[in-house]
Specification:
197 residues; two-stranded antiparallel ribbon; 11% strand; flat
């Protein structure tokens, strides 16, 4: 019977795990920490780090009792949390900026004095980002070998200003759903007790 070889990590990364000095953990421990930070599954992290499938559960449990490994995991989790916080902050600002571009777009920023559509590079950035699609149609006259191009028609389609304004207003809590309660809701103590009898 052929002996099964233990799994090796997909890539043996010599770098230390996030937040961990290089000399504190073995290469396999560093791989375990990196893998554990992916999904918090100790057994699967042990397998992906190169530990045997047969002992992965006990190895994962043992590794999570190792003070150096626990410290590296905590440091990695703190780095991930900080990265997520920074990403979310940036994403909210970017989304609001895009909504503002859409909500307050002006078709006048996209056309020249003669009414023709400006070259994209000549348009302001905010105007370009408000465009959802551009359609260019070539106009021809004549047939066969006498057919010649006489012009082009460029059609711009913008993202919905109404939807952009609606989403911005909701974010700014300018629009709220109102629920009106009607009728007299006052009930005397005696009436409430009478209903129970």
């Amino acid at each position: 019977m052929a002996r099964e070889r233990p799994n090796r990590p997909d890539t043996e990364d010599p770098r230390p795990a996030p937040g961990e000095p290089a000399h504190a953990l073995t290469a396999k421990q560093r791989a375990f920490v990196r893998e554990y930070l992916r999904d918090s599954n100790a057994a699967q992290a042990a397998i992906r780090a190169g530990y045997s499938e047969a002992t992965a559960e006990s190895q994962g449990s043992r590794l999570l009792r190792n003070a150096k490994v626990v410290e590296a995991v905590k440091a990695g989790e703190a780095e991930l949390e900080e990265a997520v916080k920074n990403t979310v902050t940036v994403e909210v600002a970017e989304v609001l900026r895009e909504l503002r571009r859409i909500a307050f777009s002006d078709i006048g920023d996209m056309v020249g004095e003669g009414g023709g559509v400006l070259d994209l590079k000549a348009m302001p950035l905010d105007a370009r980002r408000a465009i959802s699609s551009i359609e260019v149609e070539e106009l021809f006259e004549g047939k066969g070998s006498e057919r010649i191009q006489i012009g082009t028609v460029t059609k711009l389609k913008l993202w919905s200003k109404e939807k952009g304004l609606d989403l911005l207003a909701k974010y700014l809590k300018m629009l709220t759903d109102k629920v009106e309660l009607g009728g007299d809701v006052r009930v005397s103590h005696e009436d409430a007790l009478g209903d129970l009898e």
